[in-house]
Amino acid sequence: MPKRVLQGTVVSDKNDKTVVVRVERRFTHPMMKKVVRMSKKYKAHDEANACKVGDVVTIEETRPISKDKNWVVVTGAQAE
């Protein structure tokens, strides 16, 4: 099964080797027929502490790294 890949914005980098990434999705509401924006936050592993708040990063699903960290930063500040 392929790993899920998401793109989002870093909203917090206060933890060591961890960033919080907000991923936004847009869809049409089934009854109201309006475009709705919903977002969800994911904790992602950032080994080099390279990502800063506001960076647009790509995260990939991986094995559990901690209690609530199952994602790792693939591109973004680390690619530079």
TrEMBL record:
Presence of keyword Ribosomal protein = yes
Q: Keywords on this record?
A: Ribonucleoprotein, Ribosomal protein, RNA-binding, rRNA-binding
- GO MF annotations, alphabetized: rRNA binding; structural constituent of ribosome
One GO CC annotation, please?
cytosolic small ribosomal subunit
Q: Which Pfam families match?
A: Ribosomal_S17
Q: Which Gene3D superfamilies match?
A: Nucleic acid-binding proteins
Q: Which GO terms describe its biological process?
A: translation
* InterPro entries, alphabetized: NA-bd_OB-fold, Ribosomal_uS17, Ribosomal_uS17_bact/chlr, Ribosomal_uS17_CS
Q: Which NCBIfam families match?
A: PRK05610.1, uS17_bact
What does the annotation say about its assembly with partners?
Answer: Part of the 30S ribosomal subunit.
Q: Which family does it belong to?
A: Belongs to the universal ribosomal protein uS17 family.
Job description of the protein: One of the primary rRNA binding proteins, it binds specifically to the 5'-end of 16S ribosomal RNA.
Which protein, by its recorded name, is this?
Small ribosomal subunit protein uS17
| Gene source species | Nitratireductor indicus C115
